[in-house]
Amino acid sequence: MAASLSTHVLDTGQGAPARGVQVELFRGTELLAEGSTGEDGRIAELAAALAPGRYRLVFHPPSAYFRRVELELELAEGHHHVPLLVSPYSCASYRGS
Q1: What whole-number distance in Å separates Cα of residue 10 and Cα of residue 86?
Q2: Quick check: 93 and 5 in contact, CB under 8 A?
Q3: Which residues, listed in sequence order, are joined to residue 56 by a DSSP beta bridge?
Q4: Cβ atoms within 10 A of the Cβ of 76, count?
Q5: Which domains are present in the chain?
Q6: Which of 14, 21, 45, 73 would suit a FRET pair with 33, their CA atoms being 20 to 30 Å apart?
């Protein structure tokens, strides 16, 4: 079974989904997938049929302070949802469902 990945970005400073946020997925230095969040702040399927392993998820959020937020993930088989919550001077992420 393969791994798949979705994401969304919430602008907690505005209290709304973050639209148009560029997101990239890398394995090592290879760019595997990229996209921008929609009106609801989501990318429903950033990548599918991924081999389990280590990946980097890179966000370019709407923040005057955080120009780039990079997460290193260890993906196992199955679906993974990784949200990013961002405000002008803080950010957080968690494993979603």
Answers
A1: 6
A2: no
A3: 26, 72
A4: 10
A5: 3-93 (2.60.40.180)
A6: 14
Whether the model clears a pTM of 0.85, i.e. scores above it, the answer is yes
The answer to whether 5 and 59 are in contact (CB under 8 A) is no
| 32-45: pLDDT as tens digits | 999 999 999 999 99
Between the alpha carbon of residue 94 and those of residues 1, 8, 30, 34, the distances in Å are 23, 11, 24, 20
Task: Output the furthest CA–CA distance in the chain (Å, rounded).
Answer: 40
10 within 8 A of 83, measured Cβ to Cβ: yes
Q: Is the pLDDT of residue 78 over 80?
A: yes
Q: Which of 41, 36, 52 is nearest to 4 (CA)?
A: 52
Q: What is the CA radius of gyration of the chain?
A: 13
The residue type of 36 is S
